[in-house]
Design goal:
Chain B: It is found in: Cell membrane. The structure holds 2 protein chains of 2 kinds. By secondary structure, chain A is α/β, with parallel strands linked by helices. Chain A has 2 domains: about 240 residues, P-loop containing nucleotide triphosphate hydrolases (Rossmann fold); about 240 residues, P-loop containing nucleotide triphosphate hydrolases (Rossmann fold, 3-Layer(aba) Sandwich). Chain A has 17 helices and 24 strands. A 6-stranded mixed sheet of chain A has the order 6-9-10-3-11-12, with helices on both faces. Chain A has a 6-stranded mixed sheet with strand order 18-21-22-15-23-24. Chain A has a 4-stranded antiparallel sheet with strand order 2-1-4-5, with helices on one face. The two termini of chain A are about 50 Å apart. Chain B is an all-alpha fold. Chain B has one domain: ABC transporter involved in vitamin B12 uptake, BtuC. Chain B is about 70% helix and about 0% strand. Classes of the chains: A alpha/beta, B mainly alpha. Chains A and B meet through α2 and β8 of A and α7 and α8 of B.
């Protein structure tokens, strides 16, 4: 296959939003049958550029050529006709519909006025087989896994005859084994002659699958490189604009006494089955305990039980020797627990409220923010201004609604609020989910600083690299049970992967 | 009274009382499946009721036995026009669905009474002479036993409602139009990216509910109340709404729930004639349908799942 044929050429693209240039003279070339990674920090302009390519936004200036022909992609229908299809980061699926119904919606095969599901099913199954995208067309989307939902999204695009596929942060929602599978799918698609743009900020993924990488920073073109000719460090540096330390300097800290002691804890999930099964562990002062595991192995229930959001059936949760199992969240918080929740938009912030108000959600009822139930707005503002500066939160104003900040800055607001209270125990659940390299580095450094100050940190993450980089000890959860406790310097990602699937060190299966 | 005529009495009165509920509930099912909550069914039924009564009183002498049917059509059309208010407010102006629906409910009764007063110079209309009455379904009424119970001396609008139920179920689940309508109520963003016109689907859903609830109100007025006053439509629209929920947003389910509520309502009317029930004070029989509605809602509201984007406004990105 001739890899040099240019299927898409975007030249000198400028997109001006009332004086703010989201895209400032960007160039992008996609070759036939290649995987091109589009790398940039959150807010660098990747999504804007892709919205222009898929006809959702009109560029202020610049030209686009598809298959050598200059064309104005004025709406999504034109993009579709050109064979451009996008797999969105947040899946666009109707959950009560079947897989088949979701795929054919808007493009239905009919027999007179009736839906012809039989014909559609055959077509979808043929595609699914051809591209190795295993799905069951008759399942309801609500009942399938996230990875399967992603396959449905890919099939939706293929069903409409797309040759150019844009993936927006496709692995953000996947677990490590699913990511591996997804990488195969991507390579398969490229081998079948599809041209792929992969929006991401995960460098390892680019190294694994992409042929070339186009890097943008703050809306500006930083260049395109062959992936085999560029190192991870160089990519990170080009993306954030300054050298990034990939290896974190971890000071030696002597762990102190146990701050959190979980003893024989049993927690049920919503349907009443056991999610955490007789789990015991300690987190000491000056220590980061990493909880590794595949999503859905009891992590949510464990953290919810510790933070008081979920009832635990039995067992003890000792925080500084005080049993706080099944106590009110406020009591637990006041006992000295900082909580950085996994879903920052659902549990971390009140999106409609201002940055200043979000910063006092845990302390609004205390002095100096309130006296006898009357709020002191002056204090709240001063407090917000102080934290915005200290934690480098990028916001035009402390009165801006939390929902309008970028993901990285939303996370900074939560971290500022939680760390500010100087708690002895910090629970960080997926603290860097969906963030770019620069923001991840900042957050990792902050957690390590807290560790050095003698805080106990419980880190729950699905990112093995994060667990490996930060933890002093790693507890691997499988099916709600401890399948192993290892030290990062004495283990490998492969061993962790095995433990995560329930295979013990000795090769024994846990359940 | 023998068992056969007893059953015939229960069935026919159940059908008479169910017909308006089935029709309005079918409308509610379509509206909510397209993503628009329509608590304005009550108000739309009121509009259907008073417009059909005015039509009936005006044209009965010239149109004869077709008067109630044409009256029902008039009520349906006015119901549709009235529901445009709700559609415009929620779909184009992104208003809260509950507020907009409440507006319909607050607007319709005084509007009806005002117009009645302006036309007839009194607070309620005279009784109509050309009502639906009881009909025999040709052919089916002659079946031994079953014919007498179900198809003789029965409510023709109820059987129309049952046929419409099947047709509307078919459209909703077996056609392209139905799939697209439901997609607007499940995930409008997804539907939009796939080229489905969400606004159009939602208009279709709301206007269908306007037509059907208007029809329901007209059938109620012309078969049960026989005139229009401020107390003609008192809660039937909310019962239809309850039937939508109890019926899990499915036309067949909504019909079965409506039949159940209709049965409860009819009991208060025919209870005195039924052995065993005749001793219960009528006041209890009269409040029964409302109590049953509340109990059913409390028991089933949590369990049945609405379309995912029901009540969520869709704002298309510019």
């Amino acid at each position: 296959m001739n890899k040099q044929k240019n299927i898409i050429e975007m030249k000198h693209i400028v997109k001006d939003f009332d004086g703010f240039k989201a895209n400032d003279d960007l160039n992008l070339t996609l070759h036939q049958g290649e995987i091109l990674a589009l790398l940039g920090e959150n807010g660098a302009g990747k999504s804007t550029l892709m919205s222009i390519l898929s006809g959702l936004l009109a560029p202020t200036s610049g030209e686009i050529k598809v298959n050598g022909r200059q064309i104005a992609i004025v709406n999504p229908t034109v993009a579709k006709q050109l064979g451009i299809g996008m797999v969105h980061q947040h899946f666009m699926l109707a959950h009560s519909f079947t897989v088949l119904e979701n795929i054919i919606l808007g493009h239905e095969t009919t027999k007179g006025p009736l839906l012809d599901l039989k014909q559609a099913r055959e077509k979808v199954l043929a595609l699914s087989e051809h591209y190795h995208l295993a799905i069951d067309p008759n399942q309801k989307v609500a009942n399938i896994t996230v990875a399967q939902q992603q396959r449905v999204e890919i099939l939706k695009v293929l069903y409409r005859g797309a040759d150019i596929l844009i993936f927006d942060e496709p692995t953000a929602v996947l677990t490590p084994p699913e990511i591996k599978e997804f990488m195969h799918i991507l390579k398969n698609l490229a081998n079948e002659g599809k041209s792929i743009i992969l929006i991401t900020h995960k460098l390892e993924e680019i190294k694994k699958v992409a042929d070339r990488v186009t890097i943008i920073r703050a809306g500006k073109d930083v260049g395109s490189y062959a992936v085999k000719d560029i190192s991870n460090e160089k990519m990170a540096e080009l993306m954030v604009g300054h050298p990034v330390t990939m290896k974190l300097a971890k000071a030696a800290v002597e762990p102190g006494k146990a701050i959190l002691a979980v003893k024989d804890l049993v927690v049920k999930e919503n349907r009443g089955t056991l999610a955490v099964k007789h789990l015991s562990f300690n987190v000491h002062a000056g220590e980061i305990l990493g909880i590794a595991g595949i999503d859905g192995n009891g992590q949510d229930e464990l953290v919810e039980a510790i933070t008081g959001l979920r009832h635990s059936s039995s067992g003890e949760i000792l925080i500084k020797d005080q049993d706080l199992a099944n106590q009110a969240p406020r009591k637990i918080t006041e006992a000295g627990v900082a909580n950085i929740p996994a879903d920052r938009q659902k549990y971390g912030l009140i999106l409609q409220m201002s940055v200043a108000d979000n910063l006092i959600l845990q302390s609004y009822y205390q002095t100096p923010f309130s006296h006898h139930g009357i709020i002191n707005f002056h204090q709240i503002k001063q407090h917000a201004q102080k934290l915005v500066k200290k934690f480098d939160i990028l916001t035009p104003s402390i009165d801006l609604a939390g929902g309008e900040l970028s993901g990285g800055n939303q996370q900074k607001v939560i971290i500022a609020r939680e760390l500010q209270r100087n708690s002895d125990l910090i629970i960080a659940f997926q603290p860097t989910r969906g963030l770019d390299v620069g923001a991840i580095e900042t957050i990792h450094k902050q957690l390590l600083k807290e560790r050095e100050q003698g805080k106990a940190i419980l880190l729950v993450s699905y990112e093995l690299s994060e667990i490996m980089a930060l933890s002093d000890r790693i507890l691997v959860l499988h099916n709600g049970e401890k399948s192993g406790v290892v030290k990062p310097e004495e283990t490998t990602e492969t061993e962790l992967g095995l433990l995560m699937t329930g295979v013990k060190k000795e090769g024994k299966v846990v359940d | 009274m023998n068992l056969e005529s007893l059953l015939a009495l229960v069935v026919s009165s159940t059908l008479v009382y169910s017909a308006p509920l089935i029709l309005a509930a079918l409308g509610g099912v379509y509206s909510e499946n397209s993503g628009i909550v329509n608590i304005g069914l009550e108000g739309i039924m009121t509009v259907g009721a008073f417009t059909s009564i005015i039509f009936n009183l005006t044209f009965a002498s010239s149109l004869g036995i077709w008067t109630p049917w044409l009256g029902a059509l008039v009520g349906a059309i006015f119901g549709l026009v009235f529901s445009l208010l709700h559609a415009f407010a929620t779909i184009n102006l992104h208003a809260d669905h509950i507020i907009s629906g409440t507006v319909l409910n607050l607007l319709a009764p005084p509007l009806g009474v005002f117009l009645i007063k302006a036309i007839y110079e009194k607070g309620q209309t005279a009784n109509i002479t050309a009502n639906f009455g009881y009909a025999n379904i040709p052919g089916l009424a002659d079946i031994p036993v079953l014919g007498k119970i179900f198809f003789a001396n029965t409510s023709a609008p109820a059987w129309l409602a049952i046929i419409l139920t099947i047709a509307m179920w078919f459209i909703l689940y077996k056609t392209r139009l139905g799939l697209r309508l439901r997609s607007a109520g499940e995930n409008p963003q997804a539907a939009d990216t796939l080229g489905v016109n969400v606004y159009k689907m939602r208009y279709l859903g709301v206007l269908t509910s306007g037509f059907m609830a208007g029809l329901g109100g007209a059938v109620f007025a012309q078969s049960i109340s026989g005139n229009f006053s401020i107390s003609t439509i008192v809660g039937q629209g909310f019962m239809a709404l309850a039937a939508v929920i109890f019926g899990k947003w499915n036309p067949i389910g909504a019909m079965l729930s409506s039949l159940f509520f209709g049965f409860a309502q009819s009991l208060s009317i025919i209870g005195a004639q039924l052995p065993g029930l005749s001793k219960i004070p009528t006041v209890y029989m009269q409040i029964a349908p409302y109590v049953i509605t509340i109990i059913v809602l409390v028991l089933f509201l949590g369990k049945s799942v609405a379309p995912a984007a029901d009540g969520v406004n869709y704002i298309k990105a510019k």
